[in-house]
Specification:
Chain A: It is a multi-pass membrane protein. The complex is a heterodimer. Chain A has helices at residues 21-40, 51-63, 71-101, 110-125, 128-139, 143-167, 171-179, 184-218, 226-235, 239-269, 279-282. Chain A is an all-alpha fold. Chain B folds into two domains: 25-52; 68-270, MetI-like fold, CATH 1.10.3720. Classes of the chains: A mainly alpha, B mainly alpha.
Chain lengths: 290, 271
């Protein structure tokens, strides 16, 4: 028979609050940086007061009504942008695929993968528009330039997602392939690739979605497609044409996103299903990406 | 006693039959090839042009490897403007996205109709790329940092509302149910239960958005929206590739530093 130990009388003392000094210091620093930015930036905030009315004014000019007569022109310009994105993705996939093997920890030694990773990191950091500006001097202002820029720009991200998914495969099949006397290449082909394949294919599709968005941007600096038509028409203030262009861009982008999301869902889960907005979709995008 | 029973004569081990894959891979391959050929014709792939023009262009491209560091002081104010646009846009974008994200999550918005409307609106916002916003806002409010901040703001709303509402969808709804059962309104329940639970992933997504903003704010100046992009546009019009290479180097350093710092912070948050 155990008797319950007596609780000592007196006021219960709550444990001391954990020190939040560093958290507070961090938030204060963030706040100071934001305030400094607001204070230093060369913006006349009073302009904002007529921003809302003028935004509605321009929205009315664009969409009430949009220039429906330009629909087919807008559509074919968007198709050119999508073609740019497709060719760019194919180029990016062809180049990044071998590179991502050469950057994976479980495939190559450190002295091979560090330089490859450095190249991939640099390619990721340079915006595609800047790559396009550089290539312009070689190939001129064409859609082909845009496709090349998208291709080079996608090597960085595709390569990174590739080696990350290669590194996350389980070691068992690799060991099995090695134990049966498989060569290095055979281990990759039969141990590594089958495990990573669905995810890598899904990333290729996802990167194509991103390239579709970027291809519209590349036109703004003259690389053809919808962006070129858009910058021409904003310059000449043809607002109702801008309206129809925006509508076509949004509709085409959303359709391509939806098709690609369904295909990615099929690749990852093996089932055909409509992909909604929610948590199911989260598993299909690379970590930390919108 | 311990004699092994004779093994029955075994037939040679036969491999299992290969699974039949049918025509599907061929169909997929042909479809992909057809799309590629169609796209290649549209884009007018011109590989010889690269070699033909390369000798002309190699001079300018060589300049890229010789950045003119003397140009650095002139770029400082543009770098500052780029950073400030990114900071301001991240701040107002993350504040503005909070109510919309709660309205866009199945877990925090009981009204299905409003939910569908907000999500559709956000999909539309997300479908417009950052530089298109910049091009339109430059036309509306004129060139300068304000149009850049506005463009980044809409761009951020699109990203953050999607990411945060998906985090909300994935949360444990026990505390919210408790708050509702105790007689709280939806607003009060979400404020005391869902908001604190989503805060760490919200912070991490804001950091990610800041990374995206740094990248975007370096180039939106190309269409007139302030920051380093304005400088890029100026030097490329006059073919000052020594200057351009310095600017690209600065973008590289800026993006890599911010990304490294932000991913370190995000790892801390994830623990």
């Amino acid at each position: 028979m155990t008797t319950p130990t007596a609780i000592p009388a007196g006021k219960a003392v709550p444990p001391p609050r954990p020190s939040r000094l560093w958290v507070r210091a961090g938030w204060t620093a963030v706040l100071l940086v934001v305030l400094a930015a607001f204070w230093r930036v060369n913006i006349d905030w009073s302009q904002l007061s007529d921003f809302v009315p003028s935004l509605f004014h321009y929205l009315r000019l664009m969409f009430c009504p949009p220039a429906w007569s330009q629909t087919s022109a807008a559509f074919s310009a968007t198709i050119l942008s999508v073609q740019m994105a497709w060719i760019g993705s194919i180029l990016g996939i062809l180049i990044s695929f071998p590179l991502s093997f050469l950057a994976a920890r479980n495939v190559v030694p450190v002295w091979v993968r560090l330089p490859v990773r450095l190249v991939l990191a640099i390619l990721r950091a340079v915006p595609e528009v800047v790559i396009a500006i550089l290539i312009l001097s070689v190939t001129g202002l064409t859609a082909w330039t845009g496709a090349l820029a998208l291709g080079i720009g996608s090597i960085g991200t595709l390569g990174k997602w590739g080696y990350e998914s290669f590194e996350s495969v389980s070691g068992g099949p690799l060991e099995a392939a090695r134990a049966t006397g498989g060569s290095r290449l055979a281990v990759i082909r039969w141990g590594l690739w089958p495990q990573a394949q669905p995810e890598v294919l899904a990333f290729w599709l996802y990167r194509f979605e991103i390239s579709v968005r970027s291809s519209a941007i590349l036109g703004l600096i003259g690389a053809g497609g919808i962006g070129k038509m858009l910058s021409d028409n904003t310059q000449y203030q043809n607002w109702n044409v801008v309206g129809i262009l925006l509508i076509v861009v949004v509709v085409v982008t959303m359709i391509i996103d939806q098709i690609s999301a369904v295909l990615r869902q099929r690749l990852i889960t093996g089932r055909w299903a409509l992909v909604g907005y929610g948590a199911r979709r989260k598993a299909l995008t690379p970590t930390g990406l919108a | 006693m311990s004699d092994v029973p004779a093994q029955p004569a075994q037939p040679r081990a036969a491999r299992p039959p290969r699974p039949r894959r049918g025509a599907t891979p061929w169909v997929i391959g042909i479809v992909l090839a057809a799309i590629t050929v169609w796209a290649a014709r549209g884009v007018q792939i011109d590989i010889p042009a690269i070699w033909q023009n390369f000798s002309n262009a190699s001079g300018t491209l060589m300049q890229l490897f010789q950045p003119d560091y003397g140009f650095f002081p002139q770029t400082l104010s543009a770098i500052e403007e780029t950073l400030m646009m990114a900071v301001i846009a991240t701040a107002i974008g993350s504040l503005g996205s909070v109510p919309l994200a709660f309205l866009a999550s199945r877990a925090t918005n009981p009204s299905r109709a409003l939910l569908a409307a907000i999500r559709f609106l956000n999909n539309v916002i997300r479908a417009v790329p950052d530089l298109l916003y910049a091009a339109v806002f430059v036309a509306v409010v004129g060139t300068g940092a304000l149009s850049g901040v506005l463009a980044l703001f809409f761009f951020n709303i699109g990203i953050l509302v999607k990411l945060v509402s998906e985090s909300l969808d994935g949360l444990d709804r026990g505390p919210q149910e408790a708050a509702l059962a105790a007689g709280g309104t939806w607003f009060a329940a979400d404020r005391v239960s869902m908001l604190p639970s989503v805060a760490p992933s919200f912070a991490s997504q804001v950091l990610y958005t800041f990374e995206v903003n740094i990248r975007a704010s370096t180039v939106i100046g190309l269409v007139g929206a302030g920051g380093l992009g304005v400088l890029i546009d100026n030097v490329r019009t006059f073919y000052h590739y020594h200057y351009l290479s310095l600017i690209i180097l600065e973008i590289l350093v800026l993006v890599l530093v911010v990304e490294t710092a932000s991913s370190m912070l995000r790892k801390q948050l994830a623990r």
